[in-house]
Amino acid sequence: MTDQVSVRAYIGGNKVAAAGMTISLALIVLAIVAPWIVPQDPLDQSFLSAGQGPSAEHWLGTDSFGRDVFSRVLAGARVSLSIGIVAPTIAAFAGIWCGMVAGYFGGWTDRTISRSSDLLMSFPTLLLGVMIAAALGPSFQSAVIAIAIALFPRFVRLSRSATQVVKREPFIDASIAAGRGSASIMLRHVLPNIGGSLIVALTLWIATAIRLEAALSFLGLGAQPPAPSWGNMIRDGMSDLVGAPWPAACAGAAITIAVLAFNMVGDALRDMLDPEIDT
């Protein structure tokens, strides 16, 4: 694919990319406007309506407390997507700079940062997130911090390896010869040249973060009831999965759609930015 092909033109001509982008943007918009468009209060309980199936009043039925499932799915999108987007963004900001510093300067700086990130990567992502969230205490903020730390070393490793490649380019030597400082070189020359792969990684790890948030909330370490999130909706729905499957099924479907959409966008961006792929 040539450099002249814009992102907009590529996505417009790729049905998978267009579908992923449309669904992702729709979910984000729904999460933002959720407080104003929910048909019912997602926290309002009515034991007389508990465990009902889909109806004109409750489009996706009710849970075991009589709360409207459709309203809780919309409200839960605000929590789940907020954590799923904010946490990897924080991890990316910190990890990219640490990786660039390690790859650019090398030596003991590289060894210190690399060994620290290797230590974090020795733990499975979910296990590390659970350990950190449990240590901080269950809350929305704890889930953000736990997921950000769990994803941080991935960005460090990717940024470091990409920086080491760019560092050997002639224009870096020319910038050094011209008297530019290290920070200026990394900001003006290194970061723009490694940004493509990092954007792809961020998009794909947003999908991972959504899954991690769901797992943490399912374990009781994320957003706390009565605030809805897709993860704790599944946990609450497990208590009556046969009699009232709607909460777990709808929340699970929302997670699946969100993860699939962001993965589709990430795959499309990766294909678009890969010069070896002819589109």
* Distance linking N and C termini: 6 Å
The domain count comes to 1
Q: What do we call the CATH topology?
A: MetI-like fold
Q: Output the radius of gyration.
A: 22 Å
CATH class: Mainly Alpha
Second CATH tier, the architecture: Orthogonal Bundle
Descriptive account of the structure:
- This protein has 279 residues and is mainly α.
- The protein has one domain (7-273): MetI-like fold.
- It is 73% helix and 0% strand.
- The chain has 10 helices and no strands.
- The protein has helices at 7-13, 15-37, 69-105, 107-121, 125-136, 140-167, 170-177, 182-218, 230-237, 246-273.
- Helix 7 packs across helix 8 (182-218).
- It starts with 6 loop residues before the first helix and ends in a 6-residue tail after the last helix.
Topology:
Blueprint: H1 7-13, H2 15-37, H3 69-105, H4 107-121, H5 125-136, H6 140-167, H7 170-177, H8 182-218, H9 230-237, H10 246-273
Summarize the structure in short:
By secondary structure, this protein is mainly α. The chain has ten helices and no strands. The longest helix is centred in the first third of the chain and has 37 residues.
Keywords:
single chain; mainly alpha; MetI-like fold; 0% strand
